[in-house]
Amino acid sequence: MPSDLYAVADFCLIPMGTGESSVAEYIAECQRVLEKSGLTFKIFHFGYGTNLEGPWSEVSQAIHDCHTAVHRKGAPRVATDIRIGTRVDRDTPVGDGNDHKVKRVEEILARERAAASGIFVA
């Protein structure tokens, strides 16, 4: 088993106590941190969720660094919900953890739609 597991994390970072109605500047600060990390990531739902992939230690460090950056930007409190998945039953190409899953679901749905319409899809 690898010493540093490959992790796929979904996290939602919420700046609190900023006195502002928008948190976009704080989320942008976190995105800058993620871009510098070199990890694969996607921001979903207008900044209310981020998918992050890579070695467990680097993923954890990137989330920590987001907290630090958002505090430095002026948020007195930051709350984060994190869900992390790992697997050791097969190799996961770097950056392919969630893309592969999404592609498989899309393929299944496309076959079902095609079958319903009478079109054959291999």
Automatic annotation (TrEMBL):
Q: Which InterPro entries match?
A: MTH1187/YkoF-like, Thiamine_BP, UPF0045_domain
The segment(s) forming the Thiamine-binding protein domain are 9-105
Please give one Pfam family short name: Thiamine_BP
**Coiled coil (UniProt feature):** none
Q: Can you name a GO cellular component term?
A: cytosol
The similarity comment for this entry is:
Belongs to the UPF0045 family.
Protein name according to UniProt: Thiamine-binding protein domain-containing protein
